[in-house]
C-alpha cells in the first residue's frame, strides 16, 4: 500500500508502509484539504483500524477533524466537533481538534522569567497569553508521513518552531504521532527537543460529544476524574497558586457524576469559568507512567471514553464559550456546552508558579508525553 508523505520542506514523496500483519479494513489514505492564504497545501489523512473505526486528521494544525467510533448498537458515529473543510479552521474558532503549542493553556499577562531574563508573549486572551499565541501550532502546516505497526496505523507530524516565534526562546523541534490502534483508541505521542532553555506544554484541544458530535448538550455525560485537587483561578482564569481539595465542591468527580449535575452551582469558581474551565490535579500512582485517569460515559449511545496520560493534570472544559457562531460539520451549529475537552497537560501559568510541576525545557533533555483516548461501549 502506498501513502503520501510530506517532508518538513513541503516536498511530496511516496513511501511504503512498513510490513504489518494483514488485518481486514486497516488502511491510510490522503486527499487535498485546501490551501492556506499563504498558498500552502493542507492534506487530510484518513486512518482506519481493523475494526473499521476511522479518524480523519489534517496536517494543518494537527487537527482531528473527525473520529468515528461505534455506539452500543455497533453503529459508527462521529464524536468530535469540527468543520467539513479547511476554510472553517482558517477562520476564528475555539481550537477545534487542534494541536496546541508551544504552551497549552494560559500564561499570566503574557510574561515569564527564565534564567533571569523576562520574555514577553503575544497577549490573545484578555490580559493573558493563551495556547501558544496568535500564530500557534494550531495554525501551522506540519510535515507529515504515515506509518503502521503491530498496534495500528498512524500519522507522524513534525514542526520546527524558530527561536523568538510568538516570543518564546529557543528553536523547538516537535514530533507528534497519532496512532489509531486496533483496540479502538486514538493515541497521541509528543516528542520535542530544544537548542536553548524554553518553556513547553503540548496538548490536543479536541471537543468531544459522545452522543452526537455536538448536535446537543453534553450535560448528560457521566464523568469520573481521578483527582483530589484542582487549581482555583482568578477572574481572568489564571491559577491563584493554590491546590484546592475537590471534596464537597462542584469539582468533585472522584465518583462518576453527570456534567450537568453541579455545573451551575452557586460557586465563585463556577462563575469565573462560566462552568468548568479548570485544571484538575491527578491522583497519580506513579511519577510519569501512563495511567488511566478519566472516564466518560454517555448513556444514550452507550459510548465510553477512557483517558490515559503521562501528564500531571487535565483541563476539563465544558464548552461554556461556544455561542452558536461556529457552524460545523453537516451544518451543525455548536451552541454553549455542546462539547467538552479533556486537555491533558502541565498546569496553566506554570512558568510563573514555582510550586507547580516545571515546564522549563533545556538542551539535552527530551520531552516525551503520551495521551490515549480509548473508546468502548457499556
Describe this entry's structure for a reader.
- The chain folds into 2 domains: 2-196, Distorted Sandwich (Beta-galactosidase, Chain A, domain 5); 222-377, Beta-galactosidase, Chain A, domain 5, CATH 2.70.98.10.
- The protein is built from 2 helices and 29 strands.
- It has helices spanning 86-90, 268-273, and strands at 2-6, 12-16, 27-35, 41-48, 54-58, 64-70, 76-78, 99-100, 106-107, 111-114, 117-120, 129-130, 143-148, 152-161, 172-181, 185-194, 198-199, 203-204, 222-225, 227-231, 244-245, 257-258, 277-282, 291-297, 303-309, 313-317, 341-345, 360-361, 367-377.
- The strands form 8 sheets. A 9-stranded antiparallel sheet has the order 13-14-15-16-29-25-24-19-22, with no helix packed on it.
- The two termini are 35 Å apart.
Task: Write a compact overview of the structure shown.
The chain has helices at about 85-90, 270-275; strands at about 1-5, 10-15, 25-35, 40-50, 55-60, 65-70, 75-80, 100, 105, 110-115, 115-120, 130, 145-150, 150-160, 170-180, 185-195, 200, 205, 220-225, 225-230, 245, 255-260, 275-280, 290-295, 305-310, 315, 340-345, 360, 365-375.
